[in-house]
Amino acid sequence: MSNTINVLIAEDEPIIIDLLKNIFKQLSNSNRDWNFKLHTTQNCDAAIKKIDEAIMGKPFDLALLDINLPPSKQRNISSGEDLGLELRRYFPKVKIIIYTSNNDNYRLNNILKSINPDGFLIKSDIDYKGFVKAITRVIINPPYYSPSILCLIRQHITDDFFLDSIDRTLLHEISKGTKTKDLINFVNLSKSGVELRKRRLKEIFNIAEKGNKKLIQIAKEKGYV
């Protein structure tokens, strides 16, 4: 990064925007080599406009994205996750910090895989000092993950099997109560293909019982749903 660090903040809560402004001011005061130029936005459309401007001007070096944002009225972008994908597309060197109050393991796993953020924080894990530490770490030596994200990653590292996107989608939909006959609407499989996948998942998790209750229980314990 250059000494002038171009920062996009996408956050719909004014209180958090003010908190982040104070954090960047503190970081600038503690390290005179860091000169932050902040671009604050409160919805997806405003963030998209800033991204479009940066494409034609100075690229973003750092982005802080809340997952839950008012969706775009103009484009198919409805969250901080979608904004992260746009940033990765246009600014390969940008460092992205995602933060959220959402603790749904399925959603968190998708974000890890789709964006591979340089920082990933669960709001309940961190306080003001935690935010300062996370931003500093991402600027100097990423990645930085808050404790809940680290726990999720460790759970999956210790597994000696691999669940692909179809497996995770099936588990997610089954946990929501989606019936087997309707699962074909969410994955590119026939009904028999869905049944084969379900049997494979039960073998992976060493489940002998019929039905889905035990399957979802174990999948939740392992952080897949």
* Beta content: 5-15%
CATH superfamily of the largest domain: Response regulator
Mind telling me which CATH architecture of the largest domain this is? 3-Layer(aba) Sandwich
- In helices, the fraction of residues equals 40-55%
- Please state the structural category: alpha/beta
Residue-averaged pLDDT: 90
SS summary, helix count = 10
CATH fold call of the largest domain? Rossmann fold
- Give unreliable regions as ranges: none
Write out the strand line-up for the largest beta sheet, numbering strands in chain order: 2-1-3-4-5-6
CATH class of the largest domain: Alpha Beta
Radius of gyration computed on alpha carbons: 20 Å
**Global morphology:** elongated
Number of DSSP E strands: 6
In N-to-C order, the SSE pattern is EHEHEHEHEHEHHHHH
The end-to-end span amounts to 37 Å
How many distinct domains? 2
Describe the structure.
The protein is α/β, with parallel strands linked by helices and 225 residues long. The chain folds into two domains: 4-156, Response regulator (Rossmann fold, 3-Layer(aba) Sandwich); 165-221, Arc Repressor Mutant, subunit A (Orthogonal Bundle), CATH 1.10.10. Helix content is 51%, strand content 14%. The chain has ten helices and six strands. A six-stranded parallel β-sheet has the order 2-1-3-4-5-6, with helices on both faces. Strand 4, helix 4 (105-114) and strand 5 form a beta-alpha-beta unit. Helix 1 packs across helix 5 and helix 2 runs parallel beside helix 3. It is elongated. The mean pLDDT is 90.
